[in-house]
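User: Sequence recovery, please. Input:
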């Protein structure tokens, strides 16, 4: 079955007003937090792949998204980067569709139109975009999550998650049009972004993953079967980062500044009941972004 640029398995499963849990690489998948969440959900629910772009080369530059090859006495396999969708059945609850988006390099309008048509065809109830971005935050404090919702139910989800609002004007990804267009079509659109310390580069950020999984559990009933393991690995990562900072004179100076800015931000939330900073606090909070602070 074809829907836009997607080829789906036949027969297509019947979904119960699914929630579409989505990640977008590379724009908001810092330290692979979104990818980790989708992998966990796919493994937990035994979610099979039910569709992908039929001709990914129409949208992607394969000198930027490199195929991977398996060589063993010749070419055994070549894996082509693609946007994929998986299906997770949940008894007595909304089913899940796991959508792994790759940011397109060409024909973006057709790509976006194809994704929107796909979600409409499955009668999607919610479109939930998860990810992580670098921020001026310390690794020694609880992670912050920002977000926004488009649609009454979506805004209520953001409120329940106690996510900080996102106010931004500047360069972005064309894929944001998916969020806008699905909301205009009546699908509730929600975005959650976990703020990660910009001096920490990890292949798998377990703390960021655990934070996003907590939100999925609170709002959408996703069980936290592996959260203990994630917390243990996150603690090991945090301990390793702290030990490396001890050997970095520049970071030993910067870390208290980040902690003070974080404390000011939390104080503002408590006193004003709204997660906005005064202009003076914004200056303190963001001034570190101009520094080359390296990596832990």
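Assistant: Recovered sequence (296 residues):
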């Amino acid at each position: 079955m074809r829907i836009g640029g997607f080829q789906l398995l036949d027969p297509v499963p019947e979904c119960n007003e699914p929630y579409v849990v989505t990640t977008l690489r590379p724009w908001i998948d810092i330290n692979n937090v979104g990818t980790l969440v989708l992998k966990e959900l796919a493994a937990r629910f035994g979610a099979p792949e039910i569709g992908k772009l039929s001709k990914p080369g129409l949208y992607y530059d394969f000198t930027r998204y490199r195929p991977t090859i398996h060589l063993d006495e010749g070419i055994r396999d070549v894996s082509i980067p693609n946007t994929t969708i998986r299906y997770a059945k949940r008894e007595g609850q909304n089913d899940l569709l796991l959508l792994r988006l790759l940011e397109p390099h060409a024909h973006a309008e057709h790509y976006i139109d194809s994704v929107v048509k796909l979600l409409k065809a499955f009668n999607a109830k919610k479109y939930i975009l998860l990810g992580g971005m670098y921020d001026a935050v310390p690794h020694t404090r609880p992670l912050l999550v920002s977000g926004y919702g488009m649609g009454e139910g979506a805004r209520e989800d953001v409120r329940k998650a106690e996510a900080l609002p996102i106010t931004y004007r500047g360069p972005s990804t064309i894929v944001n049009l998916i969020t806008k267009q699905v909301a205009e079509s009546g699908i509730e659109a929600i975005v959650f972004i976990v703020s990660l310390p910009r001096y920490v580069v990890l292949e798998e950020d377990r703390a960021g993953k655990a934070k996003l999984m907590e939100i999925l559990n609170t709002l959408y009933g996703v069980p936290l079967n592996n959260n203990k393991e994630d917390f243990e690995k996150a603690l090991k990562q945090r301990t390793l980062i702290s030990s490396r900072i001890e050997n970095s004179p520049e970071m030993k100076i910067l870390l208290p500044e980040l902690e003070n800015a974080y404390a000011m931000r939390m104080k503002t939330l408590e006193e004003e009941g709204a997660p906005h900073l005064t202009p003076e606090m914004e200056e303190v909070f963001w001034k570190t972004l101009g520094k080359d602070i390296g990596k832990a």
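Helices lie at 33-45, 108-121, 152-160, 176-184, 206-220, 227-246, 249-272, 279-286.
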